[in-house]
Amino acid sequence: MADDKLSTEGQNGVEHRLIEVDIEQELRRSYLGYAISTLVSRALPDARDGFKPVQRRILYAMRELGIGPGSARVKSAKVVGECMGNYHPHGDAAIYATLVRMAQDFSYRYPLIDPQGNFGSIDGDPPAAMRYTECRLTPLAVEMMEDIDRDTVDFMPNYDQSRQEPIVFPAKFPNLLCNGAEGIAVGMSTSIPPHNLREVVEASIYMLDHPDATPDDLFRFIPGPDFPTGGLVLGTRGVREAYRTGRGRIIMQANLQIEPMDGGRNAIVVTELPYQVNKARLIEHIAELVRHKRVDGITDINDFSDRNGMRIVIELRRDVVPNRIVNFLLKHTALRQTFGAIMLALVNEQPRILNLAQIIRAHLEHRREVIVRRTRYELARARHQAHIREGLQIALNFLDEIIALIRRSQSSEEARAEMCARFNLTQIQADAILSMQLRQLARLERQKIENEYRQLLKEIAGLEDILETPARVTKMIKDELRALRDKYGDDRRTRILQTEAEEITEEDLIPEEKTLVTISRDGYIKRVPLDTYRTQRRGGKGVQAAKLKEEDQISHLFVATTTHYILFFTDKGRVYRLKAYEVPQVSRQARGQHINNFIQTEAGEQITAILPIKDINGPGYLLMVTQNGEVKRTALTEFANLRANGLICFDIEEGDSLRWVRHTSGNDEIILVTREGLAIRFPETDVPERGRAAGGVRGIELRDPATKTLRDVVVAVAVVGAEDRDAQLLVASENGFGKRTDLASYRVQSRGGRGIITMNVTPRTGKIVDAVIVRPEDKLILLTEKGVAIRIDVASIRLAGRSTQGVKLIDLAEGDRVATIERLLETDLADEEGEDEEVASSTAGQ
């Protein structure tokens, strides 16, 4: 409580009162008053008509000026001046900006002002000055104010008490939902999306029939917002949340499609944008991303939008995957936006978060009150008219006496008083009789008055029945809503997809393309585009695949799609997982990065087997083979949940190591090839299915029967699928020799045998290093220990028997040896249109 103190220190003996107040309390009180004033008088819409005060005042000022749909448009400056001078003394800029927005068909779903001139554009162009533009009310705006002069709403004095302005409009049109609302107040804001009139009317009629309807009930009629710019709404989860609680995140997305162009190129064509997205700024942002090389593959952006619609064409390079560019743009530009719905409005001058049912109910209750007040007004008018008609009939029945009475009266006041006393008339009736025209004395006019009186009595009875029967009021609301729907309703512009918007991950932005991955013995891994190594003739020198450290050498080479998983298996029987796109793509000569930057191998472990796989939850088995010839197969699904530090996948015996892993169907055949030139082929079903941590069984006998010591080791594993039975087995030796032999030459035998000859191993050829299943149309990548790679046609390698030495595949440098080979399927090469073929063998410096 403030303390009052008296002081006489003022001049001329005038006393001054000093009031001590707590500054914290005073600031709180003053700021609260300001905040409430901002909420009620400026920033938030009324739940009944959906208008903020400035919007309501602009439309009312235009009505007072008589600027309706049938009149000529007037200068916007005149409307702004009228509104500012009479109702809204807050500056012409704010008033004009509000007027412009109500006229923009890309801002309002149902514009309330009919514009002429430059009222801005979706490109963010500002409107022309108010002295240049013209406007008038739209028919819907007139519907909003219909019956405002029939005592349907309350009025209040304007800011200078010189005239009256409406507190709220009668609002036949459900403006709050159909046009939405936006406003930022003190400590709170509102953001209500626009909706389709037809859907809102259907939901309102349903609520009139079912007063206890819930937002979920109304969701059947209003599936989501309907933005003036069209576009897409992804999923209904955010919409339902907004309708149930008043708050929700609605994911909007541009309407776009991929269209083919000349030369095998494609273009992304955008025809609709999310609500409130600036088209020019969007195009500028995309161009900026291209300039800064954040997105690769966009060659041109053109805006072909005109009065017939929007059309933004984003041209793409021929070699890019359009969907990847689309995903990038959706993630990094305004082509996908979030509309944060906060359905806040004033209810009884109090800000409240409303759900969908409460918003519709507030409008219907207001309309019910408007109709009741209008009916009362019409009833009072009808009773007044009937009362006058009663007096006129009395006058006509006693016409001669009344004429004589008037003629002898000294004044109209005397005549009125005498008539009231003589014929028991009211003053209103007496005034009406005194105002009667002589023509009303005719017989036909007398009949007309009697008919009017009877008609008024019927009208009075009907109006009284409306007031006594709420069902009739409900029917009138329905009829008015249906009339609005039929007159102004249109088709939905925004398409709602049932599929929820998924987070666009880094993987969605990676082009899905074939890539070549290599890993060295010391653990350096990299990937390069598949077309890095051009095709050479058999026996060429190849090109440098990597600059390796001294004493390091390439140990693995394989083709993988960027979105595939890569499973890494170590010699100790552990498995790790990585996505192919996570391996850095570098130049052909680069060494790459160490594998420990990506997976956490244990001390002493060495990567010995690598398997690219598309779906780790898919069908089939992983067939694992050790250097000493043990085999094992485990269901692929057991490897679905791999930890960062890996999992045990094979119980390795001492002195052995896991070397190969292959993905099998369960009904394939397996070929094991040894360093000394032997091979064994047996059915996969001979290998028992075992758990992930179990050991294996013998696949081929490599020990000397007499000494029980190892005399050979496995160097290659090939899987023969049902489609490969007519293919060939290609074998390569360390000195660069190789050959291919029909698989029919390898008979199927039982697991655990000694095998048969697959190549005549001599000092000239060197030991066997690798073998793969091939077809003549395939190509082959051969990699040496010093990092030289060559890509050759399989058809150029002679078809030979099992016991031959083969032909030279690569011209090795002194001291170099073949490390590994990889088959390139015809499908891997299908997209390499116009591929260059090198016929010269001297391409080492390429």
Core attributes:
846 residues; alpha+beta; Topoisomerase II, domain 5; Gyrase A, domain 2; 5 domains; five-stranded mixed beta sheet; four-stranded mixed beta sheet; 26% strand; disordered N terminus; disordered C terminus; nucleotide-binding; cytoplasm
- Alpha-beta classification: alpha+beta
Instruction: Report low-confidence residues grouped into runs of 5 or more.
Output: 1-8, 829-846
Ends apart, CA distance between termini: 91 Å
What is the CATH level 1 assignment of the largest domain? Answer: Mainly Beta
Mean pLDDT, to the nearest integer, reads 86
Number of strands: 44
**What is the CATH architecture term of the largest domain?**
6 Propeller
Give the CATH superfamily of the largest domain: DNA gyrase/topoisomerase IV, subunit A, C-terminal
Topology (elements, then pairings):
Elements: E1 3-7, E2 16-20, H1 23-43, H2 53-65, E3 74-75, H3 76-86, H4 92-103, E4 113-116, E5 134-137, H5 139-145, E6 155-157, E7 164-166, H6 175-179, E8 181-184, E9 189-192, H7 197-209, H8 215-218, E10 232-234, H9 237-245, E11 247-253, E12 255-260, E13 266-272, H10 279-291, E14 298-303, E15 312-316, H11 322-332, E16 336-342, E17 344-347, E18 350-353, H12 356-397, H13 399-408, H14 412-423, H15 427-434, H16 443-468, H17 470-488, E19 495-497, E20 514-520, E21 524-529, E22 535-536, E23 543-544, E24 554-561, E25 565-570, E26 574-579, E27 593-594, E28 607-613, E29 621-626, E30 630-635, E31 647-648, E32 658-664, E33 669-674, E34 678-683, E35 697-698, E36 714-720, E37 728-733, E38 737-742, E39 756-757, E40 768-774, E41 779-784, E42 788-793, E43 807-808, E44 818-824
Parallel strand pairs: 10-19, 22-42
Antiparallel strand pairs: 1-2, 3-5, 4-5, 6-7, 8-9, 10-11, 11-16, 12-13, 13-15, 14-15, 17-18, 20-21, 20-24, 21-27, 23-42, 25-26, 25-28, 26-31, 29-30, 29-32, 30-35, 33-34, 33-36, 34-39, 37-38, 37-40, 38-43, 41-42, 41-44
